[in-house]
Amino acid sequence: ATNRVFNFAAGPACLPLEVLEQAQADLVSYQGSGMSVMEMSHRSKEFEGIIKSAEADLRKLLDIPDNYKVLFVQGGASTQFAAIPFNFTAPGDAADYVVTGAWSKKAYEEALKLGLKANLAAKGDNKSIPPRDSWKLTPGAKYVHYCDNETIGGVEFPSAPDVGDVPLIADMSSDFLSKPVDVSKYAMIYAGAQKNVGPAGVVIAIVREDLLGHARPDTPTMLDYKVAADNGSMYNTPPCWTIYICGLELKGHRSVGGMRASIYNAMPTAGVEALAEFMGAFRKKHA
Ligand code: PMP
């Protein structure tokens, strides 16, 4: 593939060439099954193998403890902004939101829309993290939600903020798998796949088991994480092709880390070098 460009798009973002070539090889007949992953039943033994190994590889990569469920859910990270209050609060409950940019603000606004007592525990300037001792956490809050990397402003937490025993929920859409993460510090981690893991169409949610099963009674079935967990992420037809591609990348994943938004995990070193060269030339030209 000589006609590939260095694609710095914010997501959907580039995928490793090996993944695309493997998908191409499997496109018409997946491993001798006589059909494409796009055409096969999600109840087939082939797809069962695909989703199970994608989960197993992710568990290995992130060293996910056994008391966490790995869910493949739909509707993008944006839908989780609504699913989170439905799953983890009852009417009248409070939850805290740390807003450090556009995405955590959207999560906060969605919670307000659902009638949750969403408390703006801290609000940043879109450039830096408000000092931890300035946060106004609510006693008895059901969770603290924050965005680990604000994609637009590039505000990234160096590690999980300390919120004591309150369940911590992180939107890791733009830095998922870009660095080691201690999953045990979180109640839930979620990320849209389309930046660091695969094509658009699936969200990976890692949820501590004891938090499941307490959803509001009016929770739409498709937003209930317990339903997803009990059905192996196949309560309805999952985005099979997307999950298959995620599985291929997860297999070949090497953490590159370091740089921020739009240079996601699949960007090769040569692409970063080309960018650095361009930036140097740009600086000289505009100095
Ligand atoms: N959170 C973050 C941090 C994001 O960067 C994005 C997408 N750019 C979203 C949420 C929304 O994701 P989706 O398009 O999957 O709803």
Structure in words:
With 287 residues, the protein is of the alpha/beta class. The chain has a domain at 45-240: 3-Layer(aba) Sandwich (Aspartate Aminotransferase, domain 2), CATH 3.40.640.10. Helices cover 31% and strands 15% of the residues. It is built from seven helices and nine strands, in the order ααβαβαβββββββααα. The strands form two sheets. A seven-stranded mixed β-sheet has the order 1-9-8-7-4-2-3. A two-stranded antiparallel sheet has the order 5-6. The two termini are 37 Å apart. 39% of the residues are buried. The model is unreliable at 253-261 (pLDDT under 50). The structure holds 4'-deoxy-4'-aminopyridoxal-5'-phosphate. It comes from Raphidocelis subcapitata. Belongs to the class-V pyridoxal-phosphate-dependent aminotransferase family. SerC subfamily. This is phosphoserine transaminase.
The Cα radius of gyration reads 20 Å
What would the principal axes of the Cα set say about the shape?
Answer: flat
Helix residue percentage: 25-40%
**Counted beta strands:** 9
CATH class of one domain: Alpha Beta
At the fold tier of CATH, the topology name of one domain is: Aspartate Aminotransferase, domain 2
Hetero groups bound?
A: 4'-deoxy-4'-aminopyridoxal-5'-phosphate
Helix count equals: 7
CATH homology superfamily name of one domain: Type I PLP-dependent aspartate aminotransferase-like (Major domain)
Structural class: alpha/beta
- Spatial strand arrangement across the major sheet: 1-9-8-7-4-2-3
Average residue pLDDT: 93
What is the first-to-last residue Cα distance?
37 Å
H/E element sequence: HHEHEHEEEEEEEHHH
Q: Which segments are poorly predicted (pLDDT under 50) over 5 or more consecutive residues? A: 253-261
The fraction of residues assigned to DSSP E strands is 5-15%
Largest sheet: 7 strands, mixed
CATH architecture of one domain: 3-Layer(aba) Sandwich
